[in-house]
Amino acid sequence: MDVATHIRRELNKCSHNLSISISRRPLSYLLIPVVVTCCLSFGFCFVTIDKDVSDLFTPLYSKAVYEQYHTEMYFPTDYSSYSNNRRTKVAEKGCTIRITSSSGGNVISDDVLTEILQLDNSIRRYVLEGEPFGFTNLCAKWNDTCVLNPIVDVFYGNSTCISLNDLTYPSTVRSDGVTFFLGDSLGDVITRNQTRNIQSASLIILTYVLKPDTYGMFSSKWEKEITTLLHNYESEIISVAYYTSQTPSEQMSSALEDNLPVIIVSFIAMVVLASMSCMMADCVLSKPMVALSGTISAVLAFISACGLVCFFQVDLNVGVIGVVFLTLGIGLDNTFVLLYSWREANPMMMSIENRLIQCYSDAIMSISITHLANIIIYMIGAISPFMCIRVPCLCAGLSLVFTYAYQLTFFGACLFYIGRREMENRHCFTCVKVDPESESSNVIYKCLCAGGVNYNNEELTIYQLKPLISWFIKTYLGPFVMHRFSKFLIIVVLVLYEGFAIYGCTTISSVQEDINAEITTSKLFQSNNLVEYGPSVYVMMEDLEYWEKDTQSTVEKMTQSFESNEYICGPEFTLSWYKEYCTFLTNSYGSCTNVTKDIYIEKLQNDFLKSSAGKQFKLDLAFSKSGDVRIINSRVLILATCNAYTHSDKVKILQDMRDIAKTANSEVVVFSSFFIVTEQHEDIVSQTLELFLIAAVCMFVLTLLLVPNPVCSVWITLGVFSIEAGVEGYLLFWGVELDIFTMMAVILSIGFSVNFSTHVTYAYATSDAESSNLRALSALNTIGMPVVQTTLVISGSAVFLLLSSSSIIINAFRTIILLMLFGLFHALFALPVLLTIFGPGTNKIVELQRDKQVFVNKSTTMEEVSPLVC
């Protein structure tokens, strides 16, 4: 006996015993899951919601995170000696304002600059409501003065400090001789021919950096109040868009609140459509309460899972909302599978207990495989380095554990009571006893109340009638799919589908410059104004003997290799402490190489770093704190992102910088504040593909153990892969950028791919028909209606997501629609055809004839079919 047969036999024994136990104590099985859920729901007393975007969307173990940690370890940010070009965080406490002309024209004009200076003055003089703190008390400082914006410093007080015609780019010299770098403060700059003088610019950026909330929450309070001030700011001359460190979290919460009604409507629609899909023209045989019971079972499972997670003080996040639909969708899918098995059990021949035994015996293996596979996949996803994926996957895995348990207990008890209602000929909604249609004379009563079976009439049983969808699949769709020409057509369509899907997957790209672009409606991220000069790249070198000539030559060559990169702005923008110090030593000693270590270190600490020219380089040197004083780490600042306007450009910078660092003879680490954001997209794509591969391997191994034929295991795995590849590939053709939110939706959709592929393939593998064609027909007859029901219900409810204006919700709708369409195509067309060609049973080729004796019971005619409402 093989493993699959043994497991199937044992599961059937367990389901047999469970069915008997449920039939004898249905109320206990109905109440125990409710009691368990109520107990676990107390975990919500400890619930915490993680709204920190950097925590949610930054991978825990990425190289950029290590590089950031390395930078902060040796060069921690000192807000009393703050330098904006040495920041390590993606977003500091404070506020960034992008200013454009209301007319869309040049911002380098007297009226615009005067308005900007007035706005800047209002912000710097703002005092917190009810607190004696303002910007000057909370700001990051340099030389005991708040770090201001270069463009403000140039025109500080009025716009006459320098003539607009003398303003140069990227650096300019004020009338008092002080030089200011404007490269990261102006956007879309146009200079006059053959000169550096600015002709026009369309964007000015103002940045106000605050100290972190080390005492009280004054910086956070300032951010909120300044946001209110800017929100109410009105000007006929300039337009402002603003951003604070709290903006992503606030916008994410706001987006959730704004779209909550749409999500609720979609949830209600799913319940209603599921109930309608279980309706028939007969008021007794209709089973809307089956769908409602399946829904309640899934909801109880979700509450139990999240409550359990909260007991362990795991922070939930916005991605958990997707788990609700995943749990409900998979729960309803398996509910429809159980419902089909329940309908196949004839009550004229069986008691309610025996019907329940047959129902679970027919469906237990299929739903067990799908649940176990999904649980393993999502539990593996729960170790993802992205918290926005880790927590939803953890909740999804636990939800499916409870869903499986509750479908075997709570739902089984509901089926028992629904079976009793049918046996007693009670109405499907009111549960009031009604007369069979054959004994009713009133037309209105027949339409609204009558139904069920007259058990005294043994000639015709209405249970032999099939719902419209089931009848259509058996009578028309199955024979059509098995026709030779149809098979050829389906194979052609499948090849074209796979070709476009693979093309889409291999051209995955994103133009998103920041993860925050998807969660904020701020104009800050909708602007097309380009800033040519970006943040600096820090080249950090560990424990070198800089006083040695060979070391100086090596460092210089390495620096030049960085500066020669196409995306680096050039050596004139490099801030190098050792170059400036070498000049200092040369002026003092005539050379920077003929000095001893002691003189080199002593002059560096006591003379150069205390001079006006060298003071800023204190931030770039880390000395040993005990024993022999030495330079344990130092950094050089290289200005990057020249000509880097797209995400791909920034990925290229990141890769180039790391590649150059690898060629160094010593330990060199590179980092820039944009590395983390840039690497996020690369990591989320690789993580998603990795999870797909793990899902495929898990499916293959699991189905090898549980499915009777290994060939079927291969096709289940390939089916999952094909559906997910199609969803991911065709999203690009639909204009969806594969950002982190879309990837989350795709990852959560894996469960449906597993269900679609497994149900139909397992039904084929376990069919006892004589030929491959007949086995495929049997599989379609068995699983076709549950698949169609799931597709109609999920797709129909997803349509209501179009009421949202959020791109995240719209993209979720697109993901769901593609998933349902491709899942339906694979379950009803592609997999049945492929299994007849390459699956087990192909050794017996039987010519397909569309014969009612083969495909349709002769006693079943169109008039006998009880149609569905849906």
Describe the structure.
The chain is α+β, with helices and mostly antiparallel strands. The chain is about 55% helix and about 5% strand. A 4-stranded antiparallel sheet has the order 6-9-1-10. A 4-stranded antiparallel sheet has the order 12-13-11-14, with helices on both faces. It has a two-stranded antiparallel ribbon with strand order 2-3. Strand 4 and strand 5 form a beta hairpin. Helix 10 packs antiparallel against helix 11, helix 10 packs across helix 13 and helix 24 crosses helix 27. The C terminus is likely disordered.
Features:
870 residues, alpha+beta, four-stranded antiparallel β-sheet, 28 helices, 14 strands, disordered C terminus
Short description:
This protein has 870 residues and is α+β, with helices and mostly antiparallel strands. The two termini are 44 Å apart.
Annotate the secondary structure layout.
Elements: H1 3-24, H2 26-40, H3 53-57, H4 63-74, E1 94-101, H5 110-124, H6 135-138, E2 141-142, E3 145-146, H7 150-154, E4 171-173, E5 179-181, E6 186-187, E7 190-191, E8 198-200, E9 203-209, H8 218-231, E10 238-244, H9 247-277, H10 288-311, H11 320-344, H12 352-381, H13 387-408, H14 410-423, H15 443-448, H16 468-482, H17 484-506, E11 536-542, H18 549-563, H19 577-589, H20 597-606, E12 621-623, E13 631-639, H21 647-662, E14 668-671, H22 673-706, H23 710-733, H24 740-748, H25 750-765, H26 772-798, H27 807-838, H28 852-855
Antiparallel strand pairs: 1-9, 1-10, 2-3, 4-5, 6-9, 7-8, 11-13, 11-14, 12-13
Helix pairs in contact: 1-2, 1-12, 2-10, 2-14, 4-22, 9-10, 9-26, 10-11, 10-13, 10-14, 11-12, 11-13, 11-26, 12-13, 12-22, 12-25, 13-14, 16-26, 17-23, 17-27, 21-22, 22-23, 22-24, 23-25, 23-27, 24-27, 25-26, 25-27, 26-27
